[in-house]
Design a protein that fits this description.
With 94 residues, this protein is mostly helical. The protein contains six helices and no strands. 78% of the residues lie in helices and 0% in strands.
């Protein structure tokens, strides 16, 4: 069975490890390593509606990944021997 270029592109897009997604992730990580000034300077070259959409998409990813952060914190706290009740008590007293 032979796949057309379009069909192959659709299959690659569905894969989490597709070359395009890997390269895009590397590009975003590299952008994140830049200074705020360089990021702002680059962002000035992006049309405002596109920039707003990018910010919205990043906010969606941040929201969806909050649980990851909570899980990491919970594991770290458990390693230190702090119980859930002790943490609740501490937070309630704040």
């Amino acid at each position: 069975m032979s796949l057309t270029t379009y069909e192959m592109a659709r299959i690659l897009e569905q894969l989490d490890e597709s070359p395009e997604k890997v390269m895009y992730g590397k590009l975003l990580r590299e952008l994140g390593n830049q200074s705020g000034e360089r990021i702002r300077s680059a962002a000035k070259n992006v049309p405002l509606p596109m920039l707003r959409d990018m910010v919205y998409q990043f906010q969606q990813v941040i929201e969806s990944r909050k649980d990851e952060q909570v899980d990491e914190l919970a594991k770290e706290i458990a390693k230190q021997g702090i119980s859930v009740d002790e943490l609740k008590e501490y937070l309630a007293s704040r």
